[in-house]
Amino acid sequence: MRIGIVAEFNPLHSGHRYLIECARKLADENHGEVICVMSEFFTQRGEVAIVDGYIRAKEAVRSGCDMVIALPYLGSVAYGDDFARKSIEILAGTGITHLIFGTEKDDVSVFEEIYTKQQKINEEEYKKLLKTGLNHAKINSVLYGLESNNPNFSLAYSYYKAIRETGLDIKMVPVKREGQGLNSSNISGEVHLSATTIRNNINDEKIEKYLSKEMVADLRKETIASEVALFPYLKYKILSLGKEGIEQIYDVNEGLENRIYEATLVAKSYSNLVELIATKRYSNKKIQRVLLHILTNTTKEDYKEKFSTNNFRVLAVKKNKSAIIREINRGGEISLHPLLNSKNSMKFKQDIKVARIYGLLFNDKDIFRENIQIID
Q1: Which terminus of the chain is less hemmed in, N or C, by CB atoms within 10 Å?
Q2: 9 in a known ligand binding site
Q3: pLDDT in tens, 310-368
Q4: Where are the domains of the chain?
Q5: Is 295 annotated as a binding residue?
Q6: According to the annotation, is 361 in a ligand binding site?
Q7: What number does CATH give the domain 2-105+151-225+309-374?
């Protein structure tokens, strides 16, 4: 048995540890392993990772995972279906038999019903609703009953769809989320705080009981990353690209380049820029992802060429489980690389670029000098 987890761990807190403990228990009962695929520098909601992937992966292994693989940038900063598709592809390549995930509702029996409804809706009907100004999450709620206020449940459905459409034999194991809602931002007495609350209150000692001592120590010695630092770089990039250049950026469509450019001329801050561009149709998350694609100069051609890669970096591994890397590589479905060098670097051009931009902004680390974290 091999258990898969898709994560961001931004940062890894008590709620995440509970999920890993559930996975660990299931794996140990069946002499198996826990494999995690994790976003590295930026997240699915278009946010900056609070610290780099190596630090968060190290904490994941300390918490019970056997290995953590980096989800490439193009999978990390993507709408839900692409995020899920790439994550499941990687985990399937490692040979997982089960996928464990946190969700607001642990009854996932409705997924097949939702999927069946989706197959019956034609593209024109969907486009008609888009033209009314509704965003994708709202349309999915209207057409299929996929609740837009349960983000983890919606993402779990994307996992289900990715597994079903590729004919994979992977069993889904839902774990009911406890504690604060995903978007809560204030410290409360809940059993688990949201990652958003922890990031928003990173210097408050009250959050420390929700983090391991090692995670707290790592956070205290690192430069804490946030979107505030992006604004001057983004403004320069948008103005230098111009509307024609922005149009070539991945996920920019239907004249969005005009809205982005005009908003940049008057925006006073990063959050102000997002607010000026976002509409009922284009959610804040969508705009945040697009802005990251602009910052990293990720084009539509980059997506076509690089999304399908089957080469992935290992960020951390438990010492007595390092043989898993060789086993997976012998299987041949995906190739895992414990470190970057002159021989494999061309396979990771996009992620090297993203890592250096993140480093320029926040930690001044050289990705070529970062080695796989081996945890006893």
Answers
A1: C
A2: yes
A3: 999 999 999 999 999 999 999 999 999 999 999 999 999 999 999 999 999 998 888 88
A4: 2-105+151-225+309-374, 109-144, 227-303
A5: no
A6: no
A7: 3.40.50.620
Known binding residue 181? Answer is no
Closest CA to 159 of 75, 87, 77: 87
- Has 45 been labeled as part of a binding site? no
Rounded distance, CA 275 to CA 304, Å?
29
Residues with Cβ < 8 Å from 272, sequence gap 6 or more?
none
Closest CA to 216 of 233, 203, 197: 203
Helical pair 284-295 and 256-266, crossing angle rounded to 10 deg: 80
Q: Cβ atoms within 10 A of the Cβ of 244, count?
A: 9
Task: Summarize pLDDT for 132-174 with one digit per residue, the tens.
Answer: 777 777 777 777 777 667 788 889 999 999 999 999 999 999 9
Please tell me whether 17 is known to bind a ligand. Answer: yes
Ligand-binding annotation for 16, yes or no, is yes
Q: What are residue 39's DSSP bridge partners?
A: 71
Does the predicted model carry a pTM greater than 0.90?
yes
Q: Answer yes or no: is 330 a known binding residue.
A: no
197 with 42: CB under 8 angstroms? no
